[in-house]
Amino acid sequence: MALAVFVLGHIWRYRYDKFGWTTRSSQLYERRLLRIGSPLFHFGVLVVLLGHIGGLVIPKSWTEAAGISEHTYHIGAVVLGTIAGVATLGGLAILIYRRRTVGPVFSATTRNDKAMYVSLTVTIGLGLSATVAANLVGGGYDYRETISPWFRSIFSFRPDLDLMTGAPVLFQLHAVSALLLFAAWPFTRLVHMLTAPLGYLTRPYIVYRSRDSRLGTRPPRRGWERVG
């Protein structure tokens, strides 16, 4: 149901709310914290997303057939996943701090934004906690034997719930929080993830014309001749 809402919700939003399909950028209000928090969050979450695709979508047998041992995969996934998770959570903390402490940015924050930030923080925090608790503090947990097959079974409309019963509680909570986030995704500013500003590469120049018919007393500078 959550994945269906994710897909159909984006289609509905794009069809009936194109003008609302925006990040509602607040860069004009404050830039110093944004220059730090935004790259940390976006690059971190990109690595996290790629790691989830590799771990959940690609079966374990495929990586082994490619010559990547389970030990090598596990070390790479834990190290990169932990670094990316810390960067994502740190960037998100800076963005939340900026949105709360900078007056104009806080004034432009809606209840929808606040709920989105809470959902993002909970989902990312649970994912990072599950990784640290299971692999760095505990004895390790091979989620590709249980959670990954369960995730793939959803798309065949035959989810194998037994695969999730033995998973650690933090992994189960992370999966639930992620599904709730996906269900809310189409109705938040997160829709900009599916948008690429390719039109900027081909759009024509914007011509600005003065509304005042008088040219003024000073001659125009070269290269800024009046049009029309």
Automatic annotation (TrEMBL):
Name under which the protein is recorded: Nitrate reductase-like protein NarX
Domain (NarG-like) ranges: 2-211
Taxonomy, superkingdom: Bacteria
Keyword Cell membrane set for record: yes
Subcellular location: Cell membrane
Residues bound to heme b: 42, 52, 174, 192
Location (main, coarse): membrane
GO terms assigned for molecular function: electron transfer activity; heme binding; metal ion binding; nitrate reductase activity
Cofactor(s) needed for function: heme b; Mo-bis(molybdopterin guanine dinucleotide)
Record organism: Streptomyces haneummycinicus
Matching InterPro entries: Heme-iron_electron_transfer, NarG-like_domain, NarG-like_sf, Nitrate_red_gam
Function comment: Does not seem to have nitrate reductase activity.
Signal peptide annotation: none
The keyword Aminoacyl-tRNA synthetase belongs to this UniProt entry's keyword annotation: no
NCBIfam families hit by this protein: narI
GO biological process: anaerobic electron transport chain; nitrate assimilation
